[in-house]
Write a structure and sequence with these properties.
With about 80 residues, the chain is α+β, with helices and mostly antiparallel strands. It has a single domain, classed as Alpha-Beta Complex (Molybdopterin biosynthesis moea protein, domain 2), CATH 3.90.105. It contains 3 helices and 3 strands. It has a 3-stranded antiparallel β-sheet. Helix 1 crosses helix 2. The longest helix has 19 residues. It is rod-shaped. The chain starts with a strand and ends in a 13-residue tail after the last helix. The mean pLDDT is about 90.
């Protein structure tokens, strides 16, 4: 499925200017149909899957309890 620059910006939750910048830097692959750039939505699947894994890892780390320090001496 192909998206316009505006649709891609909404899909990636980025400003249109950022998407246009990524296109000009060749970080997003496009097809120019004579009027506008069309972007294949499938090229983002790997990136989005990796971001979900990263978010899950960060959540797991944040939810891990802090171990007690063995060097702390109870003064009572």
């Amino acid at each position: 499925m192909y998206l316009t620059v505006k649709e891609t910006a909404e899909f990636l939750e980025l400003p249109e200017s950022t998407v246009e910048k990524l296109i000009s830097q060749k970080q997003i692959r496009t097809i120019f149909d004579g009027e506008q750039y069309l972007i294949n939505k499938e090229q983002f699947n790997t990136h989005l899957k990796q971001m979900e894994k990263y978010k899950a890892l960060v959540e797991e780390i944040l939810n891990e309890p802090i171990p007690e320090d063995k060097d702390i001496k109870d003064e009572d």
